[in-house]
Structure formats: structure tokens, C-alpha cells
Structure prediction request, 501 residues.
Amino acid sequence: MQESGCRLEHSSATKFRNHVMEGEWDKAENDLNELRALMHSPNAIVRMKFLLLQQKYLEYLEDGKVLEALQVLRGELTPLKYNTDRIHVLSGYLMCSHAEDLKAKAEWEGKGTASRCRLLDKLQTYLPPSVMLPPRRMQTLLRQAVELQRDRCLYHNTKLDSNLDSVSLLLDHVCSRKQFPCYTQQILTEHCNEVWFCKFSNDGTKLATGSKDTTVIIWQVDPESHQLKLLRTLEGHAYGVSYLAWSPDDTYLIACGPDDCSELWLWNVQTGELRTKMSQSHEDSLTSVAWNPDGKRFVTGGQRGQFYQCDLDGNLLDSWEGVRVQCLWCLGDGRAVLASDTHQRIRGYNFEDLTDRNIVQEDHPIMSFTVSKNGRLALLNVATQGVHLWDLQDRVLVRKYQGVTQGFYTIHSCFGGHNEDFIASGSEDHKVYIWHRRGELPIAELTGHTRTVNCVSWNPAIPGLMASASDDGTVRVWGPAPFLDTQEADGLTENCSNMDS
Prediction:
């Protein structure tokens, strides 16, 4: 107190606090008269006195002092002419036969520290903080300090624990880069040509990869080791596989091809059976797809002007003419579909009332985009510009992320990590870039691929697991640094460049 130059609380407030905690109700009531001049609201004194007398009344009843309790009710509480409904309820407690019955009916802890602390918390709401410290103020300040440090921590990727017992106040919070998914854990080499797309399932238990070699491979994620093993291969995509979309319940997977592909494949992932092979016209280009949240419908389209809504059997439910689709996304309300088109924009389309509206306008082609889980933010890969973050609600450009090399290849970025605090993208310079959502400079550059990295997917259930697909024919699985001794771990930085500065 002497160092800060701040007085903790007014001396009258300290007296009042002590008298309440000791159950000296007459003295506490006198203290209220001293505090009257310090209160902002003139009605506060009556409310505070009512709370004090209510506690006094209940404690008399618990002690079996019925006459004294009756005197408080008639001679002190009733003359306040405040909250008469509550007074009627309190009078009913006179009929309680024993203390436990009273506590149950009044939903009250009973005489003692717990109920008096709760009383103080209520009383303090009527006093300015400069007069009486708010409840657990020091704990609140410490929690805010810890949360601020975590908020500023570039690599914090775990759930925030609000319990201060798990935090050391002796040291500032800092997460090591070695805990972050920027070390190669596995290199998957089963594809025999360029790998164009990768996507973790919604529950994080599987990874689907699509390749120019015309196959889709489903990988199983081991829940303990986080290693991936080949579960099954889905074959027969004549044009190669450039886009994949899991159904909301992960039962189905839809595969799309490149620009000259007029077909779409809908697979049952559990059985490995092809449920639907859809093609409306040989002149179509079906290069993108998005599931409706109900899991019973999907939208698909391409740059030749097709934009369809279909059911699981590929039956056409609705269509929108003349929209040259680059990428699609269904919002959580199940009504709006976002589509980026050849006019360098993202528009919202409503298939129910057939309305559309402009949401995002860029100055260069939008090669791909993805949307955050809450539907508020969109992450765009923009030709020759890189990765842009847009607020869909306010329709404003929030941030441009630096470092990535983006020409006219289609590169897919993603949100990821706990609370989607991070952003990752592939790049034409063979690297994977990671940014904290609030910072424009990358916090990590992951090297290892030898050609363009086309797609990055962050596991939605395991914040420390990420996958990237590349034209070099491999899929790299990224995780924290392996368990090495300190000296070895310090040297293990060749594939994770630090960009903090």
C-alpha cells in the first residue's frame, strides 16, 4: 500500500466488513450511517440495511431465538417498507421446526463464515470500489494478468485454465516453440503424384488426402501417438482429386476434380462404397463443394457457371444460373451459401428466397477461402497478394498476412489451434507459414516440402497436429518437438524458423 500510494479501502468500510463477519449487527448498522455520505445512490442504505437485518433474523431463527427474530421482523424489517413480498416469505420461516428445515426452505448456508461472506458480496455492490474493495479483487487482478500474458504468448495453444492454482506467479507465462506443431512427425508417401488437397475430419480422427494420381486416401489418427496409418484408398476419380469435403457427421466424403472435371463423387467413408457419382452435364466444371449443416444436402459449382444444390443421391434440388464459382462455404444457419467467383468477390446466396448480396470485394482473384467455426471470419488466399482475413459481419478487411508466396495457384489455408487462434497456409516457395491471428508477421515457417504446398489442414480436435499436402507427392504431418533432452531439443530447429522479430 505504501509503495503503490493507494489506500485499499475506507476505514469505515473496514470496520463495517469486520462487524458483518463477526455478526455484530447493531455495530454494522451504525457503520452504515457513517458510510451513507460515501454512497452514490440514496436508496442504497435501505437495501443494505434490509440485507443486514435479513441475515440477523435468519441467524436468530437458527439459534432458536424465535422472540428475538420476531422482534427483528416486526420492529426493524417491516418499518423499512421495502420488499414486502420478501418479508412475507421471511415470516413463513417462523414455522420451521428445526435449523435444517430453515436452511432448506430459505436456501441458506446457515450461520457462519460462508453465508456472511455471501452477504458481504451483496453489500459491496452498493458501495463504490474506492470505498470498499470489490470481492476477491486481488484474485481478479491476478487472473487478468495471467490471461493477458497468455493472450500475448505467440505459441499458446492450450485451453485457458482460469484456476490460479495451476499457475506460478513467480514467473511470467511463456510457451516454447517446441510445444507447437512445427516439427515433422511423419511423411506420408503413398500417393504417386502431386497431392492437391488434405482435410481432417470434423472429429479429428481421420485425414483425407486427394491427389493428381486419381486416388483419395483415408488415414486413421491414433488417439495416443497421433501417428497416421492408411485406413483405405478410394479409387476411380478419372480427373484427379483437387477438393474434399467431409459431411458434418463424417459419414460421407465428397471429392471434386480440377477445372475440366464434370463429375463429383460421394463416398461412404465407413464402408468405402461409392454412394453417388454425379454429373449434370459433360460441359460442367464441378471443382468445389460445401455441405449444408443438416448433412442431407450439399452445394457444388465451378468456373463454367454451374451452381447446384443437391441431395445425397445427386438429385438436383436447386440451381443458380451464371455464377462462376471458385470456392464455396455453407454458413451455420443452413440458409446462406458463400461463393467466391471470377469477379474477385464473395457473395452470399440464399436458396430459399433466391436473394444474393455482396459480402467481400477484393482487387485480385480469390483463389480459395475458408470460414471460422463461429461464421464470423473468412480467410482468403488472394492471387499475387497472399492471405487476407475478413470480418464477414462488418464486411471489412481485418488483416493482410505477410511472408507467403501466392501467384495464381490454388492454395488452401486454414484456421487452427485452440480457439482457432492461429492461421496456416501453404506457399509456392515450398513452405508452410503460420501466423497468430492477431499478427501480420509469421511466427513460424515450416520447411521440408520440395515443391508448392497446396493445402494445409489443422486437426480440429488435437490443437498440436497439422497436415500439409504438396506437389512433391507427399503429405507432411506436423506436431510438437519430439521428446529429446534439452541439448538435443535446442538444436532441433532446422525446420521451424522463428519469425518473432
Notes: Residues 44-62 form the longest helix (19 residues).
